[in-house]
Amino acid sequence: MARLAIGHWFRDGVFRSILRNASFLFSGKIGGALFGLVALACAGRGLTPALFGTLVLIHSYANGVGALVKFQTWQLIVRYGAPALERGDIEELRDVTGFAFGLDLASGLVGLVGGLVLLPFLAPWLGIAPEDLSLALFYCTLIPTMTAATPSGILRVFDRFDQIAGQQLVTPVLRALGGAISYFGHFGFAGFALTWYVADLAGDLSLWVMSFAELRRRGIAGALRPGLFEPARRLSKAWDFVWTTNIAHSVWAAWGPLSNLIVGGLLGPTGAGLFKVATTFFDSASKPADLLARSFYPEIMRLDPTSRHPWQLALRSAFISGAVGLGLLLLVMVGGAPVIGLVFGARYVAAFDLLQIMTGSLIVTMASFPLESLLYMAHRQRAALVAQTAAALGYGVLLVAMIHGFGLIGAGLAYVGGVGLKALFMLVPTIGAYRRRAGIPFAAMKESEA
C-alpha cells in the first residue's frame, strides 16, 4: 500500500517538476563536489595543516562578510517575479529584477568596505599571519560578486535550472585545475590562494552572463537597470520582505564561515582546517536537501497557499529527502574515514571523528528543508527571521561552550545542536501557518481577483 501511495505522488506534475529541477542541480553538484574534493585534496596535501587552515580562514572571512551583508535577492525575485511572470506582467518583473540588482550593488559595496576596514584588526585573533594579510585583503575584493544573487533568481524564475547546474561546475573545476597546477608546480600558499580567487570570480561572473543571455533571448530589455526606492514603491511590502529575509539568512548563512573563524580563533588554524574538512563532507552529504529547497520554493510560489496542495508537496518532499538522508548517513559512517584518508592524507583522518558526530543531524537537515519556503509562501518571513536568529544565537553559545569543554569534538556536538534548534524553531510557526492557511493571500492572482 505504501508503494502505491508513493507512486501516486509522481502523478502530480508539480512534484515531478520539483524533482526534475532538483535532479538538474544535483547533477551539477555531484560533479562540483568531486572537483571540489580534488581541489581540497591538492591544497591539503600541498600545504601544511596550518597553512591549509589559513587558506580556509581567508576564504571564510570573505564569504562570511558577504553572507552578513547579502540580501537574498533571489528569493525576492522568486517571491514577486514568479507570480508576475505567471500573470504576464513584464513591467513588474523589471521592477523586481532592477530592485534586486540595486540591492546587490549596495550590499556588495558595504561588504567590501567593511571587510577591508575590519580585517587588519581581526587578523591576529583569526590566526592570519602578518605576511598573509595583504593576500587576505586582496581576497576581500570578491565580496561584491559573492553577495550578488540576482542572476540566480532570474534563472530560477525562468525555470533554467539546467543552466544553474552547469554554472555550479565552473568554480570547482577551475579550483581543481588550478590546485593541481599549484601542487605539482610547487607554487605554495600564494598559488593556492590565487587559484581559489580566480575560480570564485569566474563562477560568479558566469552566472551573470547566463542570466543576461536568458533575458535577451526572451526579449526582456531593461531588466538589469538597478534601482532602489522607485521600483520598491511599486512592489507591495518589498522592503519588509528584503530586510526580513536578509537578516534571517545573514544570521544563519554566516554561521557556516563564521564557525570556521570561531574554531580557528579558539583552536588555531589546524583546528579550523580539520573542521573545514568535516563540514565539507557533511555539506556534500546534505546537498540534496538544499537542491530540493531551491527547486521547491519557485514551484509552491505559483500555488494557492489556502489549498492543501503545497503543504502536501512539502510532506512528500520531506519524506523523500529524509529517506535519502538516511542512506547518506549510512554511507558516510561506513566510507567517511577511508575517503578522508585517501583524499586529504592520514593527518586529516582526525576530522572523521567530527564527521561521525555531525552526521547525527543529517536526517533532520534533509527532512526539514521545506519549512522555510512554506513560511515565505505564507507571508510569515518574520517568523522565519525569529527562528533562524534564535537558532543561530543558540548555536553560537553552544559552539563556544562546547569547544571550551570538549575541544574540537565539542564543535561537532554544537553543530548537531544548532541544526536541531533551527528545525524545531522553524517547525512551530509552520504548523501555525498551516492551521491558519485560509487567510493567506494568493500572490499569483491579480489584485482584482484576490
From TrEMBL:
The main place the protein resides is: membrane
* Its membrane topology: Multi-pass membrane protein
Q: Which UniProt keywords apply?
A: Cell membrane, Membrane, Transmembrane, Transmembrane helix
Question: Where exactly are the transmembrane stretches of this chain?
Answer: 21-41, 47-69, 99-123, 135-157, 169-189, 318-344, 350-371, 383-403, 409-428
Coiled-coil spans are none
Which compartments does it reside in?
Cell membrane
PANTHER family with a match to the protein in the record: INNER MEMBRANE PROTEIN YGHQ, PST FAMILY PREDICTED COLANIC ACID TRANSPORTER
What protein name applies here? Lipopolysaccharide biosynthesis protein
